[in-house]
Amino acid sequence: MANPRTNEVTRTDGHQNVHGPFSPRIDVMQHDDKVVIRADLPGLESKDIRVTCDRGALIIEGERHSERVEQESEMLRVERTHGRFQRVIALPEGADAANANAHFENGVLEITIPAPLKDRGKQIEIKPG
Asked: Is pTM, for the whole model, over 0.70?
């Protein structure tokens, strides 16, 4: 049986599995003049998710609700996690969070933020001797 405070799962054979809180997987990509962030949020709806920008960081937070399944048999294993989550992604210098767009479909949140590529400096040639 699962202990909701510790995410500890006790199986019928007496062994325990410990699973941490839900933490969505994140991809961050730079495409030309924009940053694209994708977060896997399966089983959530857009009303369960909040996206904000603060001090050069994008914050994705929300809550995954547990399903209550009543069974007459004993639970053998529980691996689906639930609870509050938060991911903070540092944005590159010059990212224009005021013009960000977010789209949520099929459990994937995609956020696009204009972010012009900055001059990455000049490579300095190293001469022998």
From this structure: no
